[in-house]
Design goal:
- This protein has an 8-stranded mixed sheet with strand order 14-15-13-16-17-12-18-19, sandwiched between helices. Strands 3-4-2-5-10-1-11 form a 7-stranded parallel sheet. A 4-stranded antiparallel sheet has the order 6-9-8-7.
- Helix 10 (about 225-240) packs parallel to helix 11, helix 13 (about 295-315) runs antiparallel to helix 14 and helix 22 crosses helix 23 (about 585-600).
- Helix content is about 45%, strand content about 15%.
- The protein has about 650 residues and is of the alpha/beta class.
- Among the domains are: about 270-405, de novo design (two linked rop proteins) (Up-down Bundle), CATH 1.20.1440; about 460-640, P-loop containing nucleotide triphosphate hydrolases (Rossmann fold, 3-Layer(aba) Sandwich), CATH 3.40.50.
- Belongs to the helicase family. DinG subfamily.
Length: about 650
């Protein structure tokens, strides 16, 4: 790539960084003011601090409050740097919603193009679950009468089932293209781990494959989720060994937007999942082939042992917890069943080697079975041998799933992610607790880093009010209905879990009647839901994930209701963190809650002209956290205890 593609001239007597610094100065002091944009000292300070990360190719925690324009600041560096190095920069967002916020027509990338006259080559790399699977669609619609799923076929390009030239192929099959499907419908037809894409006969016409080929060619930016980036890291070497390209190309720089959430994506990417139903489904692929009687009997035995294994796991799981993750006791009975199942699967894999030599089993079926059995074996090995592994059971109406995760991921992150000598930026309004970044750095295995904190330029004292309600559970629901019903602009209500949202949805929300539109997370594709809410200026958006990243200025969102303090759940993942901490409350629970609470409150004021109110609901036991909460609030709250109101000023 030549320097002609840079947005500024580069002469022989200048280094790239000198020319970049001069251009950044011109942008802030000349170009943006000429376009009518207000010059913000906080943004300029942040931009020139960030320059050090690119010069030193180091890790930078860039904590900047709402309204400082942190996205614009890191884009001004990553785009020229990508063009200078000839490698795209990767921006990893915490989830798919933030990706859509970044690339929407009114998003920061479009604004930058308009302001600077740039043409930015930005492409999306979404998680595999965000794409349609043609194989699953065929199987699901063959036994379903769901008209919404039939409608999906109407949107599939003609070349998928026709004889069109490959030159006419284009990316398709993104979750966003099917907003009318709710999350449960989408799970019936999207990619999942049981699909062997490498052996699939429609692989080259698959939407996921075409999207991957598209984003690999990005010249400036590739935007993905934290989940997808971490999946890329964990699978990179294995894919190379199999003769496949890594999920993402080599990057010039990486930006972790909402970087305080990266640890959870890393943990999720390292999990091994084995469900009760999947093994039977997988092994059925073999029994439909012409296999030997000995192998058939062995399969029947494994299915029986697998059921017994899950029964013992469920027997020794914690069924008292309210969390969807049920901790498992490593009881001797569980270990005994695990060893028996492992021996049988080892034996079956040996028999399948012989079966494959007879060429009686479909190659695609065999590949899926072998890969899944290897995964089950690895789960069994961790369960039996790794005392440090975090293990839990997830149960729903249709299935049970065993999940196994390494206890801590910082050692792997330290080696695989943060040892690379490339600029790495963590960007968020909440990366520290009182400007101390050690909680985040330690959890991610980051030993050396630069950091800075920039406060928001907004005048919160005139823009926001915060009211804290100490109230019992029944009165809380009634009060929330009252607040939503009397507010004539848009409201966001944040819950700590889906179960809390459901409790409100079916217990109290019906009292609001039909005059107020309520949008619930999970009912539609999330970015479509957010867009509807934004354009419906007197509606209510209910969510348990949108504590961060939701950027809706103006009257569309002028009230935020926080249902309860967002402490981490009492599940095996956080229990493992607590068990390995000398002070679990102050080192694990409280920092997590305060960071998340700051993010939730930060959804309200997005521009200097915004105004609104925050309502935080607490129980009597939460009184002990009041001082810590007040220290992270932008304004002094009013305390409402029943009939009394106390202004904390």
């Amino acid at each position: 790539m030549t320097t002609k593609s840079l947005p500024f001239p580069l002469t022989s007597d200048q280094s790239f960084y000198e020319a970049l610094g001069d251009w950044i100065g011109d942008v802030f002091y000349d170009i943006l003011p000429e376009k009518g944009l207000e010059l913000r000292d906080e943004q300029i300070f942040m931009a020139f601090q960030m320059e050090q990360a690119f010069k030193k190719k180091s890790i930078m925690f860039a904590e900047a409050g709402v309204g400082t324009g942190k996205t614009l600041a890191y884009l001004l560096y990553t785009i020229p740097y990508a063009r200078y190095t000839g490698k795209p920069a990767i921006i990893a967002c915490s989830d798919e919603t933030l990706i859509e916020q970044l690339v929407k027509k009114t998003g920061d990338i479009q604004k930058l193009e308009d302001l600077l006259g740039l043409s930015i080559d930005v492409r999306l790399a979404k998680s595999r679950e965000q794409y349609l699977c043609l194989k699953k669609l065929d199987k699901t619609t063959a036994k379903s009468e769901d008209e919404d799923l039939d409608e999906v076929y109407e949107q599939i390009p003609e070349f998928v089932y026709g004889k069109g030239s490959m030159t006419s192929f284009y990316p398709y099959g993104d979750r966003k293209e099917f907003p009318y499907l709710d999350d449960d419908q989408w799970k019936q037809i999207n990619w999942d781990s049981l699909q062997d894409c490498l052996s699939c006969d429609v692989r080259h016409r698959c939407g996921q494959t075409l999207n991957r080929e598209h984003y690999r060619s990005a010249g400036d930016l590739i935007i993905c989720s934290h989940d997808f980036y971490m999946e890329h890291i964990w699978t990179k070497e294995a894919r190379k060994r199999e003769g496949q390209l890594p999920l993402l190309p080599e990057a010039s720089a990486v930006v972790f937007d909402e970087g305080h959430l990266l640890e959870f994506a890393a943990q999720k990417a390292l999990t091994y999942r084995t469900s009760l139903s999947n093994l039977s489904i997988i092994l059925d692929k073999l029994t439909s082939n012409d296999i030997r009687e000995k192998t058939l009997y062995l399969i029947e035995r494994i299915v029986e042992q697998h059921d017994e294994w899950f029964a013992s796991i469920s027997k020794h799981a914690d069924h008292e917890t309210t969390s969807e993750r049920r901790a498992i006791v490593r009881h001797e009975e569980v270990l005994t069943y695990s060893k028996k199942l492992k021996e049988s699967i080892d034996q079956l894999l040996e028999e399948l080697v012989f079966e494959s030599e007879l060429y009686m089993i479909d190659e695609y079926d065999l590949k899926i079975v072998e890969e899944y059995l290897e995964q089950v074996l690895f789960s069994l090995k961790l369960l039996v041998e790794d005392d440090g592994a975090i293990i839990w059971l997830e149960e729903d109406a249709d299935d049970e799933t065993l999940v196994i995760m390494p206890r801590l991921v910082e050692d792997i992150l330290r080696e695989e992610v943060f040892s690379k000598k490339i600029p790495t930026i963590f960007s968020s309004a909440t990366l520290s607790i009182k400007e101390d970044f050690s909680y985040l750095a330690n959890s991610l295995g980051i030993d050396q880093y630069d950091s800075f904190s920039v406060s928001s330029p907004f005048d919160y004292s005139n823009a926001m009010s915060v009211e804290i309600h100490f109230i019992d559970e029944f009165e809380k629901g009634q009060k929330q209905v009252q607040l939503l019903g009397s507010h004539d602009e848009g409201s966001l209500i944040l819950f700590n879990a889906k179960e809390d949202q459901d409790l409100y949805r079916y217990g109290y929300a019906p009292e609001l009647g039909q005059d107020i539109h309520l949008y619930y997370e999970g009912d539609e594709e999330i970015s479509t839901l957010v867009e509807k809410f934004q354009h419906d200026h007197s509606s209510v958006l209910s969510s348990y994930h949108l504590w961060e990243g939701l950027d809706i200025p103006g009257s569309s969102l002028s009230q935020v209701i926080i249902d309860s303090l967002p402490f981490p759940p009492q599940d095996p993942v956080f229990e493992a963190k607590r068990n390995h901490s000398s002070d679990p409350v102050n080192e694990v629970d409280l920092p997590y809650m305060l960071l998340r609470l700051q993010q939730g409150i930060g959804r309200l004021i997005r521009t200097s002209s915004d105004k609104g109110e925050v309502h935080l609901f607490l129980c009597d036991e939460d009184q002990k956290w009041l001082n810590e909460i007040e220290q992270i609030l932008p304004v002094k709250p009013v305390i409402n205890k029943g009939q009394s109101r106390i202004n904390r000023d």
